[in-house]
Amino acid sequence: MSVILFLAFFLYCTSSALSTKDDETALLKINKQLGNPDILQSWVKGFDFCNAAEKMAFQHNWYIRCSSTGRVIDLYLQNTDFTVPFPNAICDLTELEFVGFYHSPWLYGSIPSCITQLYNLHQIVIVGTSLSGSVPSFYNHPNLTIINLSLNHLSGTIPSSFSTLPNLIQLDLSFNYLTGTIPPQLVHTSHTSYPQLVLANNSLTGELPRCYGWIDFGLIDLGNNQLSGDASFLFGKQKKSFAKIILANKEFEFDLSYVEFSDNLYGFDLSHNKIYGKVPDSFATASVLLDPNLSFNKLCGELPQGGSMGRFNAAVFANNTCLCGYPLPPCSASAPASSP
Ligand SMILES: *[C@@H]1O[C@H](CO)[C@@H](O)[C@H](O)[C@H]1NC(C)=O
Ligand SMILES: *[C@@H]1O[C@H](CO)[C@@H](O)[C@H](O)[C@H]1NC(C)=O
Ligand SMILES: *[C@@H]1O[C@H](CO)[C@@H](O)[C@H](O)[C@H]1NC(C)=O
Ligand SMILES: *[C@@H]1O[C@H](CO)[C@@H](O)[C@H](O)[C@H]1NC(C)=O
Ligand SMILES: *[C@@H]1O[C@H](CO)[C@@H](O)[C@H](O)[C@H]1NC(C)=O
Fold it and tell me: Ligand 2 atom closest to Cα of 150?
């Protein structure tokens, strides 16, 4: 009996067809806007979009998933080589939860703002395109957890409206041409995973808002920008996450002597800034620390010894004002006085 029920359930689940002509119309329009490319030649009127997905998925560079009620909820396209603007008919798929566009370097134009009206969105990943213009201002989307728009040609500022996305835990806008300051509260602490904020390789300026000190980041990468000021509040003994912190910039400037490295910190890059003071003892006791980088700063004094110091080579500390002690040359009488 239960086997029959299971079979019935199985058949019911896998045989849902598109329940609305609107979704079919939207998919056909997307195909047309993409210029009817070869990889979408099966996308014709009457095509069983929901069930074809399983079989054709990745070898065809596209993937569609439907809900149990036959609405399109996931749309994924990759490695397309058509030179066309972003297909705004995507906005007609009103139940979409996942939009994925990967590595389509010829896709140009802007990301249409109608995409911010897809209120069911959980994830939007558009990476490796030539899309330009501004970052869409998502506002008040309750279920949006991931926005990844890295490796595009986006410009303008980061929308402060992202602070209204209560469940955003991963934001990646790296490798674009963004300017302006980093708005507060772009990502939030969550029960399920440690937040990730990746804004590397843009032209962001100004200071990092202090509220980010409250977040237990899994990853924060602000490298290759023109950020300045204090960022020491990102560190601290109380942090629980297995974190990686990347601040390689030019103008971050704070006293490292008072920073406490958490035992769970596994990597950081503070190279090429104006960080001063000495390397604190907690650096040597941070047991999982794997690839730190303090090179090209203004640090001085004797390095802490013991603990995990044996794992690090001189490059980690190179090109500072007057650091000394293993793995750098010993602090000699002629070297600047080491701390008492
Ligand atoms: C958000 O997700 C929850 C749980 O999956 C769902 O019940 C709710 O309808 C969703 N809300 C929106 C606006 O998509
Ligand atoms: C964003 O997407 C790219 C491409 O898939 C991936 O390499 C990157 O890790 C993603 N960002 C985050 C923060 O996961
Ligand atoms: C971003 O990276 C590219 C190459 O990866 C580099 O040419 C460009 O100058 C970088 N932009 C910024 C603002 O650092
Ligand atoms: C630290 O960063 C500098 C400059 O970016 C780089 O040259 C060096 O190889 C890095 N060192 C380590 C140990 O990662
Ligand atoms: C970095 O330090 C090394 C070793 O002391 C030195 O040879 C090199 O010239 C320095 N580089 C710069 C850019 O100062």
Answer: 1
Structural domain count of the chain: 1
In a domain, 189, yes or no: no
Residues of the chain scoring pLDDT < 70: 1-16, 52-60, 333-340
- Confidence at residue 16, expressed as pLDDT on a 0 to 100 scale: 63
Tell me if 148 is assigned to some domain.
Answer: no
Q: Report cis status (omega within 30 of 0) of the bond before 292.
A: no
Does the beta carbon of 172 lie inside 6 Å of ligand 2? yes
Closest CA to 81 of 98, 64, 61: 61
Ligand 4, pocket-test mutation among 252, 273, 295, most atoms within 8 A of CB: 295
Range of the domain at 64: 19-133
Neighbours of 284 (CB within 10 A): 19
pLDDT per residue as tens digits for the range 224-234: 999 999 999 99
The domain spanning residue 94 has which CATH number? 3.80.10.10
Nearest to residue 152, comparing CAs of 92, 245, 86, 223?
86
